[in-house]
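[Discussion] Sanity-checking designs against the backbone

I'm trying to build intuition for which residues belong where. Below is a structure token string of 171 positions. I'd appreciate it if someone posts a full sequence so I can compare it with mine line by line.
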């Protein structure tokens, strides 16, 4: 085991003022509350409310070995359906690489180009039903949030179990 921090960093990103655009933040907050309510310390996991600040979110999980990003994802599925994507599968929309236009995904790709970063990155998203000014999730996405959290929990456990497997290729 190396001297990095927790096995998995979980960042919820999104804008809470645009209804379902904030699903990642709602999910990460609920997961952190669930861990505390269950009396279970989220050992090996760091939950981060990344909101709309990718710089701060990434700095809070920089010492983690693996990263799980929770976000609203528009990918052609029906509202409330889930996506599981590798970083390379995330379409950044061709946004310009400027200090004002950087997204979390631009930053992660930049880190990877420099040879830094995480051993594993996964993006879990929920297809939004409504992205419009307003606070709180749409009824549909709110109803799907518990199932989304279960998918996230399964992914976290899978990432941790892969992290704990012995390296059979080492000589």
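Best answer:
Here's mine. Compare freely.
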């Amino acid at each position: 085991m190396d001297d990095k921090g927790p096995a998995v960093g979980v960042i919820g990103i999104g804008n809470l003022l645009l209804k379902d655009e904030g699903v990642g933040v709602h999910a990460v907050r609920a997961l952190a509350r669930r861990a505390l309510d269950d009396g279970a310390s989220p050992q090996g996991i760091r939950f981060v409310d990344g909101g709309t600040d990718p710089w701060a979110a990434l700095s809070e999980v920089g010492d983690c070995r693996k990263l799980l990003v929770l976000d609203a994802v528009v990918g052609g599925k029906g509202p409330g359906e889930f996506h599981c994507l590798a970083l390379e599968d995330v379409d950044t929309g061709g946004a310009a690489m400027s200090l004002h236009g950087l997204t979390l995904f631009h930053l992660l790709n930049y880190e990877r180009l420099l040879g830094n970063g995480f051993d594993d990155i996964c993006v879990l998203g929920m297809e939004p039903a409504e992205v419009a000014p307003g606070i709180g999730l749409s009824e549909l996405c709110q109803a799907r949030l518990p199932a989304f959290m279960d998918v996230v929990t399964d992914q976290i456990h899978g990432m941790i179990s892969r992290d704990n497997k012995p390296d059979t290729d080492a000589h």
